[in-house]
Amino acid sequence: MNEKNLYSALAYAGVTPFVACALLPLVGIVAIPPFGPLDQLVNSYGLAIVCFLSGIHWANYLANKDELPFNLMVSSNAIFLLAWFGYVLGGLSASLVIQVASLGLLLFIDWRLKADAVLTAHYFRVRFTATSLAIASLVVVLLS
Q: What pLDDT digit, counting tens, does each position of 85-96 carry?
């Protein structure tokens, strides 16, 4: 499996739980025993994904710090901390709204990295598609 196939498969597999948590209530499934209600499940999963994406930025920073226009460790860590505080201190709706914003900000950082030729156009297209699906799914959960 080449690198493009690997990160594409991981990105689309990673967005699947977001989509499932948004669509399953439409067919009457609102919880998955033993994991609990889907809205709380997607909230926990969303926080994990924000953490994972921040970690990818950290790895990029450590591998390419001389080529980067800004410190990814600081920016991505600040975004993750915002999501974590929203998760711990806010209610479900507030946490999901903050996760939507966090995913958008992390995608904006990747857009900047693509513009500076740190990331490939293909990688960014995959990230854009996966993030768009995740954000749309979180909005569906918020509105239901």
A: 999 999 999 999
Q: What is the pLDDT of residues 42-81, one digit of tens each?
A: 999 999 999 999 998 888 888 777 777 778 888 999 999 9
Domains, the chain: 3-143 (1.20.140)
- Our CA angle for 68, 9, 41, nearest 5°, is 90
Q: For helices 38-64 and 3-23, what crossing angle results, to 10°?
A: 160
Single pTM value for the model: 0.90
Helix axes 38-64, 72-89, angle to 10 degrees: 160
Preceding amide of 69 cis, omega within 30: no
Size (the chain), residues: 144
